[in-house]
Every structure is written in C-alpha cells, then in structure tokens.
Design brief:
mainly beta; Jelly Rolls; six-stranded antiparallel beta sheet; three-stranded antiparallel beta sheet; elongated
C-alpha cells in the first residue's frame, strides 16, 4: 500500500512540475502614458533667452541663437563678441537653463560646427545660480553644470570670429 501511495505521489509531483513550467508563453500589459510636448520656456529642460536680441524664441517657443537676427548679416571678420556679462552672469546672460524636474540632473553642453574648416571659436561659459563660472563648452570640448530641482544655470556666449562661418549645433544632454 505504501508503494502505491509513493508511486501516486511521484506521478502528481511530475504532472504539477510540467504544468507549472508551462503556465503561459506570451503576455501583454498595457498602461497609459502622458507625454506632453512643450516649448523651451515650459519644458522639463527650460531654456530662456536673456536680454539680447541675438538669442530669442522662434514661433514654436524653441530657443534660437542667431547673430543675423538683427539688421546685420553676421559678425565682423577678425572680431570677438560676448553675449552676457562674465562678471555678473546670473544677472546678464545669453540664455539660462532651468531644471523643471523634481530631481537633480547634470546638463552637458556640446557645440559642433556645421563646417569643418572653421577659423575661430564659439564658447558657452556655464555659470551657477550665484554667478560663479563652473565650466565651458566649445567645439571639441563639452561643459557641464549640475542643477538641483528648480535650479537655474546661466550661459554666456563668447565668439572669436576669423573669416569663416561659425554656425553649428548646440546640444544639451541631461543625465
């Protein structure tokens, strides 16, 4: 009798282990997601122009840096320009970046020229909320600033123009 119970018990364990490993082969769980798109003035990474006409919002509230925005066609050859005040960047700046998230993030700036044969430089000097310079980004060299939730960082632009176009793309990455 004990042998019959043992054989029956082994059979039940064998069947249940096969059924347990084949519980299901596929599944799907759907969740809703809300992903609003906002202009640079109200997005998670807030970008806002300073007092210069050279940095502004376009029609889509995207920050633009354009030295031909005024009545000129561009900057002078063999010249230097500064947009903002390196001595009081938290008061007079080209643009600012605001962490509109509830977590601290590192904001890394990178500028890449459109043309590879550039004679000159574009630098983005990064300042914290006290007006202290923390880093610089320029072609070939990224710069970073760490911002707590709701904190604002400031950017001053310096140009050293020779005789070529200094146009390019400024990227801000968050980590």
């Amino acid at each position: 009798m004990n042998t019959k119970i043992a054989v029956l018990l082994i059979a039940v364990i064998g069947v249940s282990s096969v059924a347990g490993t084949a519980a299901f082969t596929t599944g799907q769980v759907d969740r809703t997601a809300t992903v609003q798109v906002a202009g640079d003035d109200a997005a998670l990474t807030g970008l806002a122009p300073g007092a210069s006409d050279l940095v502004y919002y376009d029609g889509n509230n995207e920050l633009q840096i354009d030295f031909s925005q005024v009545t000129a066609d561009g900057v002078n050859a063999n010249s230097t320009y500064t947009v903002g005040d390196t001595g009081a960047a938290n008061e007079t700046y080209a643009f600012n970046v605001t962490n509109n998230h509830n977590t601290q993030y590192q904001y890394t700036f990178d500028y890449v020229f459109d043309n590879t044969n550039n004679a000159g430089n574009v630098s983005f000097l990064l300042y914290d909320n006290t007006g202290t310079q923390v880093d610089t980004a320029s072609p070939g060299s990224t710069g970073s600033i760490s911002l707590a939730a709701g904190e604002v960082g400031y950017v001053v632009i310096e140009l050293d123009a020779a005789s070529t176009d200094l146009s390019g793309t400024l990227s801000v990455s968050i980590s």
